[in-house]
Amino acid sequence: MAPRTLPFLKQLLSKSSSYNTNFIGSRFAPKRSVTYMPRPGDGAPRPVTLIPGDGIGPLVTGAVEQVMDAMHAPVYFERYEVHGDMKKVPEEVLESIRKNKVCLKGGLATPMGGGVSSLNVQLRKELDLYASLVNCFNLPGLPTRHQNVDIVVIRENTEGEYSGLEHEVVPGVVESLKVITKFCSERIAKYAFEYAYLNNRKKVTAVHKANIMKLADGLFLESCREVATKYPGIKYSEIIVDNCCMQLVSKPEQFDVMVTPNLYGNLVANTAAGIAGGTGVMPGGNVGADHAVFEQGASAGNVGHQKLVEQKKANPVALLLSSAMMLRHLQFPSFADRLETAVKRVISEGKYRTKDLGGDSSTQEIVDAVIATLD
Question: Is 125 left (phi over 0), alpha (psi -120 to 50) or beta?
Answer without folding.
Answer: alpha
